[in-house]
Every structure is written in C-alpha cells, then in structure tokens.
Amino acid sequence: MTVLRFLLWPFSILYGGIMLLRNWLYDKGWLRSQRFDLPVISVGNLTVGGTGKTPHVEYLLRLAGNKKAAVLSRGYQRKSKGFVLADEHATAETLGDEPFQYHRDFPDAVVAVCESRPAGIAQLLDLQPATEVVILDDAMQHRPVSPSLNLMLTDYGRPFYKDHVLPTGLLREPRQGARRADAVIVTKCPADLTPAKFTDIALQVKRYSRSDTPVFFSAFRYGNPVGIGKAPQLSKYVLVLTGIANARPLLRFLTDNGYEVVQHLEYPDHHNYTLADLEKLQALVEGEQGKELSIITTRKDAVKLTDGILANTTSRLPIFYVPIEVYFLQQGEAFDAMIRQHISSFQV
C-alpha cells in the first residue's frame, strides 16, 4: 500500500461504513425501496468508471426483441433537470451522452432520464403505458428502486474483489454489495480466457455474491470503422479521440489491427466537446507533415460530435468511429434465456 493510500484509508473506512449502514437500512425496510409490476432490469456496478455498461444495455435492448423496451438513466452531466422523455428534439445536452446514444441507435426504444428513478419510471409508464420492460442504466446504488433483476458488471482488468472503497480505491460501496446481484458479468475479458481462469474468477466473485448467483464472462467485438466526416477511407495513421472512462481496449484493438496511433487526445469521461476542441483536432491533422492522418473515436463520442453546432465542423474532418458490441465467451445462450424468461414471467 502506498503512503497516499495509507493516509486515505481512514476515509475509506468511514465512507464504506456509511454505505454499509445505508444498505442495511434498505435491506431491513427502514428506507423505502419501490417495486413495479413489470420487469425492471438494473445494469450497474460497484466501481466508479467504465465497466462497459453502455454496450451491455444495448445488448439487452437487442435481446428484448419485439418487447416494448425503455431505458431510464440519470442522464449524467446533462444540462436539463427533472424528467425528460427523448423525442425528435432531444440532444446530448438534454439527455446526456449515453441516453442520447440509445435514442439515436435504437429508435424503437423509449429513452428517458430522471434523477429520481421511482419518479422517472412512474412518469415513463404514464406517458408510455405500452412499455413492457424497463432497463435502468447505472442504478446499482440507486436503492429507492428495487429492480426485478439486478445485473452487476465488473471489469476483468480491475475486478471488484481486488479493489477498495473510495477514496483509497474505486469502489462506490464495499465488496459485500455484490450480494444484491442476481447475476455478475465479468466484462472486457480477453478472447483466449482459459477454463481454469473462468473457474478462478467465478470463485473469487462468489466470495462476496450469493452462492447461487451465476457468473458470466463477456468481451467486446469491434466492427468496421464508420465515417462521420469527409474522408472516404481510413488511413493507417490515426489520431485517437476519446472522452470515456477507459480507452485501453480501443487502443489495443487499433494496434492489433495494424493502425499506428500517432497521438491520443484523452478527455475525461462524459466530456462535452466544444468548437475549440474540434479546431485543435483540425490543427493536429494539418500539422502532420507527410502523413495521411485519420481521426478515430468511439460511438459514445461520435453522437456528441455529430450533434448541434459541432455537426458542421465534424463533417469536414477525416473522422471515424469504431462500433462495439458485447458477446459472451461462454454460456451466452444461458444468459439470453435467463433474460427472456425473466421478461416473460411478468404479465404486462
């Protein structure tokens, strides 16, 4: 343990104790947690930062098939307040970047944001009574709603069982919070994970989860880059632009596929891009002498770069985003069956 972590340890104990007390009050019914008469699936984690919630929410939306699905999010860093239902006037500023991405990529889904999840679900169902399943984005610590199914994600590269509570580590609550999970998904796994490693990780997870909680393992599959600017094709030399919690998997994908990363402009997660940011991009592209340079970004960033006043400038840049999808390394059919059975068990 470093000196800084040692000095922060008392604050972690204090914060962790507060979270344990809060969870105990909810578990005992002293604090109210509301249930609803339809499937409410929470996708969350114990960790601050990117565990891959967005592509897993998208996986669930695809899995819902012909069911009328809705996504409810807090709408982190949006500039609006209260309940907002996505419509043709929605932007990343009114919804937040991830809900806006759901709205763009899944036009048949209902997307809404609200700071209060119980109030948000109630208003969503009032306005969209045909809704058959609600997916809560990043709601593991939002205890005022008791989901019918609680999916907990943990990053293979930084599993919750090796982490510590804030501020010493990145956990939002102690590891024992995993007991609320109905299923745990270990995300961002390498494709060549061995059977012995599957077993070892599952045993480590089950030290904190319930003994009957299934453990699944997922990975990312990257698609062909999609142009959102002026360039007809992608160059070998790329400038990477990200405003996400963890860009390492994207960088690894690019280098593994023969791209040379000339520079990485790494902004904080949920960064709100400005015209000045795009002007900086343009200057960097033009400043590379003798190289045909392309810009690579993520889908999450692309939806903001192609929205509002930024869209015109983005269209003049040689910029592409790399689509991403989740797939399961094993027991994918079992996971799909679990979700479908859970949804169908409700009479909506």
3D shape: globular
- Briefly note the structural class of the backbone: alpha/beta
In percent, how much strand structure appears in the residues? 15-25%
Please report the total strand number as a whole number: 14
Domain unit count: 2
CATH class of the largest domain: Alpha Beta
Query: Which architecture of the largest domain per CATH?
Result: 3-Layer(aba) Sandwich
Describe this structure in words.
It is built from 11 helices and 14 strands. It is globular and about 65 Å long. It has 2 domains: about 5-65 and about 130-220 and about 330-345, Rossmann fold (3-Layer(aba) Sandwich), CATH 3.40.50; about 225-320, Rossmann fold, CATH 3.40.50. The strands form 2 sheets. The chain has a 9-stranded mixed β-sheet, sandwiched between helices. A 5-stranded mixed β-sheet has the order 9-13-12-10-11, sandwiched between helices. The chain has helices at about 5-25, 55-65, 90-95, 95-105, 115-125, 195-205, 250-255, 275-285, 300-305, 310-315, 330-345, and strands at about 40-45, 70-75, 85, 110-115, 135, 150-155, 185, 215-220, 225, 235-240, 260-265, 295-300, 320, 325-330. By secondary structure, the protein is α/β, with parallel strands linked by helices.
Keywords:
single chain; 348 residues; alpha/beta; Rossmann fold; 2 domains; 9-stranded mixed beta sheet; 5-stranded mixed beta sheet; 14 strands; 34% helix; globular
Tell me the layout of helices and strands.
Elements: H1 3-27, E1 40-45, H2 53-64, E2 69-73, E3 84-85, H3 92-95, H4 97-105, E4 110-113, H5 117-127, E5 133-137, E6 149-155, E7 183-187, H6 195-205, E8 215-222, E9 226-227, E10 237-242, H7 248-256, E11 260-266, H8 275-287, E12 293-298, H9 299-305, H10 311-314, E13 319-322, E14 324-330, H11 332-344
Helix pairs in contact: 4-9
